[in-house]
Amino acid sequence: MPKIVDHEQYRKELLHKCFDLFAQKGYASITTRQIAKELGVSTGTLYYYFPRKEDMFEQLVEEMSQEYLQIFASELKDGQSRSERFEALANFAVKYEDRLIKEIFMMVDFSQQQGIEAVRNNAVLARIRQRNKQAFADFFRIPDPALADFVMIQLMGLMLARMEDNDIPIFEQVTLLGKMLITYLEG
After folding, report:
1. Could you please report the per-residue DSSP string of 78-126?
2. What pLDDT does 1 receive?
3. What is the pLDDT along the chain (187 residues), one digit of tens a residue?
4. Are the beta carbons of 49 and 138 closer than 8 angstroms?
5. What b/e readout covers 108-127, taking b as 16+ CB neighbours within 10 angstroms?
6. What pTM value is reported for the model?
7. Separation of alpha carbons 187 and 71, rounded Å
8. How far is CA 143 from the centre of its chain?
9. Among 27, 53, 152, 154, which one is most buried in terms of CB atoms within 10 A?
10. Number of other residues whose CB lies within 10 A of the CB of residue 56
11. What is the pLDDT of residue 166?
């Protein structure tokens, strides 16, 4: 009897497995052939799901972004104050610190290899940025998209700072950001 394959599930499994490869070796340093070897699949299998290495990377970033938003949304409760929501964000950042930092490494490496303008003009990445900005605005009931950008930028900056100084307290910094934003919005 032939094996029935859930192609969407298999594609997601391949993406999850290649996350560490991109994070450890870098987008520019690893070939599709090397990825296939590390994943234990043929290059034909990879090309079936991802016609180009860039497609694989974009789909990985998209998958991770959706996953983060779903996880964070599941941790929010109806009726939570903004302050409680920022505490939830702080807990999320603490819990997923390693993964968030690896994602930053991946994006920096991808940007170096592709070029800043190519990344800025990448339709997939632009769609992900816009969706994330809207999600942050919705999660924290932020009426101004620029403030949603500000929150995301501060969170990324905090993760970059943690790479250099492990003593920077994530929870304290994110809740402080929340207090500042709440004061600004209510003041």
Report:
1. TT--HHHHHHHHHHHHHHTHHHHHHHHHHHHHHHHHH-HHHHHT-HHHH
2. 58
3. 566 668 889 999 999 999 989 999 989 899 999 999 999 999 999 999 999 999 999 999 999 999 999 999 999 988 999 999 999 999 999 999 999 999 998 999 999 999 999 999 999 999 999 999 999 999 999 999 899 999 999 999 999 999 888 899 999 999 999 999 999 998 7
4. no
5. ebbbebbeeeeeeebeebee
6. 0.87
7. 31
8. 23
9. 27
10. 22
11. 85
* Alpha-carbon distances, residue 98 vs 23, 38, 46, 63 (angstroms): 11, 21, 27, 17
Residue with tokens 């003041």: 187
Between CA 44 and CA 9 the distance in angstroms is: 18
Q: What's the confidence (pLDDT) of residue 187?
A: 77
Q: What count of residues does the chain have?
A: 187
**183: exposed, middle or buried (C-beta count within 10 Å: 0-12, 13-18, 19+)?**
exposed
What is the torsional sign of CA 164, 168, 169, 171?
A: negative
Angle subtended at Cα 21 by Cα 129 and Cα 28, rounded to the nearest 5 degrees: 70
One-letter amino acid identity for 107?
M
Residue 27, classified by CB atoms within 10 Å of its CB into exposed (0-12), middle (13-18) or buried (19+), is buried
